[in-house]
Specification:
The structure holds 2 protein chains of 2 kinds. Chain A is of the alpha+beta class. Chain A contains 3 helices and 3 strands; from the N terminus they run αββαβα. Chain A has one domain: 2-Layer Sandwich (GMP Synthetase, Chain A, domain 3), CATH 3.30.300. Chain A is 40% helix and 21% strand. Chain A has a 3-stranded mixed sheet with strand order 1-2-3. In chain A, helix 1 packs across helix 2. The longest helix of chain A has 16 residues. In chain B, helix 1 packs antiparallel against helix 2, helix 2 runs parallel beside helix 4 and helix 5 packs across helix 6. Chain B has a single domain, classed as Four Helix Bundle (Hemerythrin (Met), subunit A). Chain B has 6 helices and no strands. Chain B is mainly α. The chains are: A alpha+beta, B mainly alpha.
Chain lengths: 92, 159
């Protein structure tokens, strides 16, 4: 396992971002990939399609996208978060 | 130096089960979702700190900090660290199996978003989302505690 403070490679971040952008192509979904711990990444997606989903529905969909688009690299994701535009407005 | 209250292994063991029970009661009996979610996340923090101490064979967080610095070259202040993802990574460094199945991936993804600032949470949380969070806490809580029954990798110290 990578050390706790190891940062993920740029190549991994690019692959993860591309997989989510491809899955949501044409749907006006914003994708952000940032560094987590031990070489893993966090993924945040924002889009209208997540507006009325429960957390469980969001997680099921996002992990399906991750597994289908990234295969083994899906294990390098530690957090997947989805927000609708109203969630983002509420955060401020 | 006097230890910080709550830093002992026994404190963490007590808190992890008590706060989990409190959280479940708040969620199911009186539907106080934000407070329940705060307590349930806190139970995971305690479970991870307990795991680290048990694996290192130490009785408090200060001793765990010293052991992590000596044996793993990791500089951490476990007493003030409330980041669940970082604590999980530290637990992995001393033997916790990550677990790659889908249920654990999902549980980590949901539970790692917890922060100690949830005690100030003002937004409302739907019952469905709160109960889902509670179920993911259960998955992770049981996984971490079950790992203590495993022999440590590399013939390390038994908890």
């Amino acid at each position: 396992m990578a050390s706790v403070n190891t940062r993920p490679s740029r190549a991994l971040k690019s692959r993860v971002k591309a997989a989510f952008q491809e899955a949501y192509e044409g749907q006006n979904v914003f994708v952000d990939v940032s560094s987590g711990y031990a070489g893993r990444v966090h993924v945040i997606v924002v889009g209208e399609r997540f507006e009325r989903m429960t957390e469980e529905e969001k997680q099921k969909e996002l992990w399906r996208v991750a597994r289908e688009g990234l295969a083994e690299d899906a294990q390098r994701i530690s957090m997947l978060l989805a927000y609708g535009p109203s969630d983002v407005r509420a955060i401020g | 130096m006097a230890r910080k209250p709550g830093d002992a292994l026994l404190d963490q063991e007590h808190a992890m089960s008590e706060r989990r029970d409190d959280g479940k009661l708040l969620m199911t009996r009186v539907k106080r979702q934000p407070g329940a979610m705060y307590l349930l996340g806190y139970a995971i923090e305690c479970a991870l700190k307990r795991y680290i101490m048990r694996r290192l064979g130490v009785a408090n967080l200060e001793a765990a900090r010293n052991a992590l610095a000596e044996s793993h070259s990791l500089k951490v202040n476990l007493s003030s660290d409330h980041n669940l993802e970082r604590l999980f990574a530290l637990a992995e460094a001393v033997g916790l199996k990550r677990g790659d199945d889908v249920a654990l991936q999902e549980a980590r993804s949901i539970v790692f978003r917890w922060t100690v600032d949830w005690r100030y949470m003002r937004r409302s949380v739907s019952p469905a989302d709160a109960h889902y969070f509670g179920r993911q806490v259960d998955v992770l809580y049981q996984w971490v505690n079950a790992q203590l029954r495993r022999r440590p990798p590399g013939g390390g110290r038994r908890p």
